[in-house]
Amino acid sequence: KYDGRIPTLIPSSFTPDPEWGVPNITSYMDGTLVLGTKLNSISPVTDIRLVAALDLEVASRYDVLPRSIFLAQLTILDSLAVKSEREDATKQWIDEKIQEANKLNDPGLISSLTNLKQGSHGAAVRALVSRAVRAIGGDPTEQSAKSKLAGQLYNVRSALSHAGSGPTLNVRGARELVSIVLKASILDIDVLDPIAFAAKQCDGNKP
Description:
This protein is mainly α. It is built from 10 helices and 2 strands; from the N terminus they run ββαααααααααα. The longest helix has 24 residues, at 140-163.
């Protein structure tokens, strides 16, 4: 016997005999009861990036595999994170290397060099989480802690994606970061735009 709710490989010489535990699970949640009057003060979500992220977050609630849930949460963060541009001097150096790579006629190398003009996905995810924490009133200490957690989780996600295995999955931590980012983005869509968010913070700090 095995847990039928979790995909399991069964030798062909055996007849599958799953145990399903609780056969039927139902739940009901009314948005008005959960959010109350907050619904009246929040603008409709129209940004397609945020709509897609919310759809994936809702879909992940129906998953039972920790690995799938974890990867879904990190996919949400990754999809909403905007990579920053590197310094002009760095991009100029990369352009020179691209010109050299053109002579080798290696599309893969050229593509990799072109991608280097922007910062890494991991750095973008850390920055997104930091902005989100700040947007909802978190102090610098909390920003640093959540940003560090985001980096750790992203490294685990990379290990799962490329090597197929990694350290213990911190599903709760991943869900927490996604909740922070989605909440902050719903209240202020500029959280998803590093330049717009920075400009807004500068304006807010002016006397």
